[in-house]
């Protein structure tokens, strides 16, 4: 942990199921934005941003610092950290959420409001599928995460005027992306039939065909 600020704030949390189903996915994790988390660290007439850092759990504890010399925020990219294997990278930057006017989760049921609610309430880690391959991309790159991999996440509050970290949360609990299913293990039968049931169904179908054939043959022979 970064000892320069001795963080005591709870780390990022997974989004509520009613806002993000199937979370995490193979390559993304939806997190709740830090509403009211940094209020005690805000000063009037100052401009702030929230930086989100991501790191694979397998990275060493000594490489988990998110502040550089002089208290400046770490600007490591996903490429420089091998996707978070070597330490944290900056995955997203956004404004401090307004604690006085949080989005109403009930609005997520309104088709006219759901997009705004999700954008204001959640941050989707791994949501940019093009930035790694775009040579003209100059924003913070938030590329897809690695499937079946455990990550940790952290929010930091950055003073835009002084360019230093004013506060930060703890690292999140470990969050694992989903595992890719092998094609031969995907059940494509609507009724989830077992192998034995398939064999029995096939045999019965053959018997029914033979029975019908015999019946038709007897009818034709009689005629």
What does this structure look like?
This is UPK3A protein. Keywords: Membrane, Transmembrane, Transmembrane helix. One of its GO terms (cellular component) is plasma membrane. InterPro entries: Uroplakin-3. This protein is of the alpha+beta class. It is elongated and about 100 Å long. Strands 2, 3, 5, 6 and 7 form a five-stranded antiparallel β-sheet that branches. The chain has two helices and seven strands. The mean pLDDT is 84.
Major sheet details: 5 strands, antiparallel
Strand content: 15-25%
Number of strands: 7
- Please, what is the average pLDDT? 84
Percent helix among the residues? 10-25%
Question: What structural category do the secondary elements indicate?
Answer: alpha+beta
Number of distinct helices:
2
Features:
223 residues, 2 helices, elongated, five-stranded antiparallel sheet, single chain, alpha+beta, 2 domains, two-stranded antiparallel sheet
Secondary structure elements and their pairing?
Blueprint: E1 29-32, E2 48-56, E3 89-95, H1 114-121, E4 122-125, E5 150-159, E6 164-168, E7 175-176, H2 195-222
Antiparallel strand pairs: 1-4, 2-3, 2-5, 5-6, 5-7
Keywords: Membrane, Transmembrane, Transmembrane helix
Protein name: UPK3A protein
Transmembrane segments: 198-220
């Amino acid at each position: 942990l970064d000892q320069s600020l001795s963080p005591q704030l709870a780390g990022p949390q997974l989004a509520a199921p009613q806002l993000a189903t199937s979370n995490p996915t193979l390559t993304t994790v939806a997190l709740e934005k830090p509403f009211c988390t940094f209020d005690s660290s805000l000063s009037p007439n100052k401009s702030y941003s929230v930086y989100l850092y991501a790191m694979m759990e397998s990275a060493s504890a000594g490489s988990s610092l998110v502040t550089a010399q002089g208290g400046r925020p770490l600007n490591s990219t996903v490429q420089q950290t091998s996707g978070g294997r070597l330490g944290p990278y900056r995955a997203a930057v956004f404004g401090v959420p307004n604690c006085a006017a949080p989005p109403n989760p009930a609005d997520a049921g309104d088709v006219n409001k759901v997009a705004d609610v999700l954008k204001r309430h959640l941050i989707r880690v791994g949501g940019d599928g093009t930035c790694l391959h775009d040579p003209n991309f100059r924003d913070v790159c938030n590329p897809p995460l690695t499937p079946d991999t455990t990550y940790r996440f952290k929010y930091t509050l950055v003073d835009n005027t002084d360019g230093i970290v004013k506060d930060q949360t703890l690292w999140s609990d470990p969050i694992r992306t989903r595992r890719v299913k092998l094609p031969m293990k995907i059940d494509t039968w609507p009724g989830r039939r077992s192998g034995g049931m398939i064999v029995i169904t096939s045999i019965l179908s053959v018997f029914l065909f033979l029975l019908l054939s015999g019946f038709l043959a007897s009818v034709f022979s009689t005629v």
